[in-house]
Amino acid sequence: MPAHSHQHTLPIASKLKFGILLSILILVIEIVGGLLANSLALLADAGHVLADIIALSLSWYAVKQAERPASHSMTFGYHRVGVVVAIINALSIFAIALVIFYEAFRRLQQPPEVDGPLMLAVAAVGLSVNIFIAFWLRKEQKANLNIRSAFWHAMGDALASIGVIVGGVIILLTGISLADPIISIFIGLIIVLAAWSIFRDGLRVILEATPRGLDVKKMIESLNQITGVKDVHDVHVWSITPEMHTMNCHVLIDDLATSEAAKIRDKIKEVLNRQFNIEHATLQMECEQCNVNDILCQITVTREKDKVEKPPP
Predict the structure, then answer these.
(1) Are 191 and 96 in contact (CB under 8 A)?
(2) pLDDT per residue as tens digits for the range 115-140
(3) What are all long-range contacts of 60-68, with beta carbons under 8 Å and residues at least 24 apart?
(4) Radius of gyration of the chain (CA)
(5) Where in the chain is CATH 3.30.70.1350?
(6) I need a labelling partner for 61 at 20 to 30 A (CA). Which of 172, 188, 215, 294 fits?
(7) Helices marked H in 110-178
């Protein structure tokens, strides 16, 4: 793995750790405030905060795992721990959305009476902290799926706090208590869309799909235009994480000296890195056409009974 792939992990770990401490503080405030104000909305939001704490803790764990070096049993290292954590976080966001929809439906049937001013005050504190956490992680979440899942946990809770505040203001000014569940439904829809994006990207990595936005045909055409390359086939492109791409392929060249073949290989890796953001490539250089000459290789499993035993020499 490239050496620079770990440069940002330490500051991210520190940010996540501080975010966990802030979220624990908000959890205590919202539980106490919800009980004093008799606000089910605040207690439900406290449940969201608890999910945030779990998500941030899992993200912190994944970041620390990614720092571990590769081993004989984990030759790619532990980068995909973050992808697994992101998928778990996305599923938990779906669960939170379902709770929001359930509570919204229940409140549509029987709107609760709450202490409006206290509810607004506590929700405002929760909103400010969650906005701070989301703002703090805004840069890292663009390039890291695991951090993005934690970011959207914080954003989802911030949206829930906004819903509590807006609903509380409307209730105080108009007495229309149906505002709270209606706003909650919109909040649930927003975080479901965010969770689906995270879940989809994580699933693509686990399934070793071609990285999003990478055109394999265009990549092969670019490689075939390199001087000395006669053909590129048996191509596999996948991701270790959504931001860390890798590939392997067979490259047909003339029967050249090792030093000349190495120059062609280095040029191929330069094109892959610069044009297609592929930092780790394994290239099998060939001077004769191999049996597998299709651009894409169909991987099959040979059964024991299909194997042909070679006669002894």
Answers:
(1) yes
(2) 667 777 888 888 888 788 888 777 77
(3) 60/13, 60/16, 60/17, 60/20, 61/85, 62/86, 62/146, 63/9, 63/12, 63/13, 63/16, 63/146, 63/147, 64/9, 64/13, 66/6, 66/9, 67/6, 67/9
(4) 26
(5) 216-300
(6) 188
(7) 116-136, 145-174
CA distance 276 to 266: 15
Alpha-carbon gap, residue 159 to 131, rounded angstroms: 9
Specify the pLDDT at position 219: 93
Q: How far is 188 from 71, CA to CA, in rounded Å?
A: 42
Residues contacting residue 276 through CB under 8 Å, at least 6 positions apart = 214, 219, 222, 245
Residue 305: predicted pLDDT: 55
Which tokens hold the place of 288? 């004769």
Beta carbons of 77 and 158 less than 8 angstroms apart: no
With a CB cutoff of 8 Å and minimum separation 6, the contacts of 59 are 16, 82, 85, 89, 146, 147, 149, 150
**Averaged over 258-280, what is the pLDDT?**
91
pTM, to two decimals: 0.66
d(CA 65, CA 288): 43
Residues above pLDDT 90, as percent of the chain: 12
The kind and range of the H/E element at 285 are strand 278-286
**Which of 7-11, 98-102, 168-172 reaches the highest mean pLDDT?**
98-102
Q: How far is CA 310 from CA 177, 291, 303, 305, in A?
A: 81, 19, 16, 14
Structure tokens at 183: 């706003």
> What is the assigned CATH class of domain 216-300?
alpha beta
